[in-house]
Prior knowledge:
The chain contains five helices and three strands, in the order ααβααββα. The protein is of the alpha+beta class. The chain has one domain: Winged helix-like DNA-binding domain superfamily/Winged helix DNA-binding domain (Arc Repressor Mutant, subunit A), CATH 1.10.10. It has a three-stranded antiparallel β-sheet. Strand 2 and strand 3 form a beta hairpin.
Amino acid sequence: MRDKCHLFFETLGTGLKIDLIFQLKKRPLSVKQLSENLKEERSKVSHALISLLECGLVRVKKEGKSRIYFLNKDTILPLLNLVEKHIKKYCKICKK
């Protein structure tokens, strides 16, 4: 289980992936919209979304020719809320 936990948290290990999660926390978006919002190349955004998708952190649905990405609300939203609670209450590193 240790190795699986490591892989899970490693999946979240870049600023871009965290930015994508926080964008998708607001509302579902396409790669084009995410790319524009974050001022990142579409290919870079797509690549980051693939690992988030494979880990089950985000999901995707087709709307016409677009693929719309959204958070896995069953697990990632409660996890984000728990992380935010932990940061506010316990994390000395994050309070600096």
